[in-house]
Amino acid sequence: IAATQPSTDWHLKENAREHHTSKFSSEELLVRRGQAFTITFNGAERPEQNLIFIAETGPKPSKATKTLATFDISSTVSKEGWSAVLQSSSSSSVSISISSPHNAVIGRYRLSVQSGSSSPQSLGTFVLLFNPWSSGDDVFMPNTAECEEYVLEEFGIIFAGNKNHISSFGWNFGQFQGDILNICLSIMDRSLYYRQDPITDVSHRHDPRYLGRVLSAMVNANDDQGVVLGNWSGKYEGGKNPTSWTGSGEILQSWKKSGFKPVKYGQCWVFAAVLTTVLRCLGIPTRTITNFSSAHDADGNLRVDEFYDADGNHLERGADSVWNFHVWNESWFTRNDLGPSYSGWQVLDATPQEESGGIYQCGPASRHAIKEGEVELDYDGPFVFAEVNADCMYWNYDSATGKKTLIFSKSTEIGASISTKAVGRDARVDVTRDYKYEEGSAKEREIFKKARKKLGLEDKFDPTAPKQEEVEQKPDISGKFKVAGSLEVGKDLNLLLVLENLQSDAKAVNVNMTAWSTLYTRRRVNQIWKDSLSVTLAPKEEKQFPIKIKYPEYQQQLTTDKTIQVTALCHVEDGIQVLVKRNITLDNPAIDIQVLGEAKVNKEVVVEVAFTNPINEEVKDCVLQVEGSDLLQGILELRIPPLKAREKSSTKFKLIPSEAGPKHLLVNFFCDKFADIKTFKMVNVIN
Fold first, then answer.
1. What is the pLDDT of residues 242-259, one digit of tens each?
2. Which CATH architecture has domain 144-455?
3. Does 349 qualify as catalytic in the annotation?
4. Can you give the residue ranges of the Transglutaminase-like domain (predicted)?
5. Which residue is catalytic, options 201, 349, 462, 676?
6. How many CA atoms lie within 13 A of 45 on its CB side?
7. 474-585 homologous superfamily
8. Alpha helices in 300-441, H assignment, sequence order
9. Catalytic residue among 147, 184, 268, 671
10. What is the pTM of this model?
11. Which residues are annotated binding-site positions for Ca(2+)?
12. For this structure, is 392 an active site residue?
């Protein structure tokens, strides 16, 4: 006769400690694959009665799809499949150590036990995750400090700005908070792959390569009602401005609460940060990568074409573009499909830019393959290669005649200062050399030609071997914009246009200048300023022309990306045109956080945030938003009274930390004149 329903002791604390899952706040057993966990249950017959265990996952579990395992008690752990080893038994209870294979499907399992010929008894459910601490796992990461950072760390730093002026902001990944794990599991069950064929989809969930690709599609809303809806218009009505988010938790929870409607709005770093949260939660080591001067090569020729009119205005022609920066992900796993040298960091990109296989997904592309120009290897090599390596072509376009004239080309423009957060510290690490050989070196050109050849492009235009219709002439003058003074919202913008005559005879030059506010994608939004000047440069002469754009001139026109593109198109008499341009990112004024006293677990601590209004007019509609995993639940939002010109405000609030260790507090302040002034502070919480 079958015993009554067994009650199960999952040994949650001990198992979590062994499996690096203690940070999750869950009443359910969460363990990593390829590693033993212990459970005790009572109500079973004596183990001599041949206990058989059944572990199953997904909608129609079967042994063929490796979503069903039945195993009995053995004396040793199985190398291949699931196994159970008896730890101890008494007349009323049995302790068993259960092991899963290194390549088990991840997700939520149902576990039951059968004794003799009686029907199976449910023991309950547990969740199985990837195991980067285990050498048999595809995501194995030998360096434990890297495991700590890329799987267990809930705080990240994302780099932004532009290559001349790199800025950064904190992000709360929050992968262990509240209901995030369940939301991540439901993301997998809402993908197009699952909807089309749930049985096959679940059977592929042992493979980080497969899941990385599926999740890169699911984090954007395109095709599949995924998590975040992108918006690069500069207008964000009906949703949140992408620059205002400070963490993934609010986004993932909003998606679930709304009945899985896409959350408005995201831009590249939001997609990358949410994908980091999901992959770290599932146990795949993942980080965000920022690429400066990032190419979006829409037509697959490894070349980006930009068009300008006679006044120097950047024209929205053609689908190619160069972004001040773009953020994607790298995840760490083996590439059994490509071979050992292609294992390690893999590029995934959840920002919906180009379709791959008919839907908006990108990667995984082996970073090693990108560096070596092996663009034919799966997945999306040409697109990722172009992001860091495309050549830039600048054209003058006459809309009346439709004629385009090459102004100049540049092969060293794209893919600068590729950046990620350091392991274990709040600093920037440059990984450009991991993506390409030194810019301008013979090896770098050789790889570029190799990539073009693999794509069948070797006969088409190559900047180093011009054809007749696209001959690049040598300019008579050179020019550049220099920054004079600080680049801060609220202050006048002072620049110098420096023109130099490269020839030994005088040159007459007419210069048309414009300044536009842009998005970080360099999409123009509002014209701020225009001017022109005529000058004759003596032989070999260099001249400087000061330019001042006053704060009131740009204040209304600035986007929340705080970016301005200044161009000067120089028409040289009897010579070719010279284009001078610079993308400028303005800094927000500073905001200061002080923790008053020691931060202790479960004890109140006061935090003070100070901000000084730097401009000569009142700012109003001021809001302070605060978040931080293990420091406070959710997001604290405080309204702050208006601040008169130059007035300082100080706001105090209380925290009750819930866990010891180094934690990060993230603050975002915004008002009618300043968007999203962000900072973060490390708070060391003691027991």
1. 999 999 999 999 999 999
2. Alpha-Beta Complex (3.90)
3. yes
4. 260-352
5. 349
6. 17
7. Immunoglobulins (2.60.40.10)
8. 367-371, 381-389, 432-435
9. 268
10. 0.94
11. 389, 391, 439, 444
12. no
